[in-house]
Amino acid sequence: MKLFMIIDKILGDFQRIIEYPKLGFQSSIEILDNEIADYHFLISKGYYLHLL
Q: Which of 9, 25, 31, 47 has its CB 3.0 to 4.6 Å from that of 20, i.e. a possible disulfide?
């Protein structure tokens, strides 16, 4: 599996960690501001295939 696809899948998982608590599917956890900034940076670089 190529590195791009691995990062893309991890980013999709991270998005679910953010979004699922809002939908009642899991408990929320603290996500740091720099983690959110990195998340948005990777999306801007084209890592969005596994996002909701």
A: 25
Position 12 scores a pLDDT of 96
Q: Give me the number of domains the chain comprises.
A: 1
Tell me if 51 is assigned to some domain. no
Give 6's Cβ-side CA count (13 Å radius). 3
pLDDT digits (tens, 9 = 90+) for 18-50: 999 999 999 999 999 999 999 999 999 999 999
52 domain-assigned: no
Asked whether residue 50 is domain-assigned, the answer is no
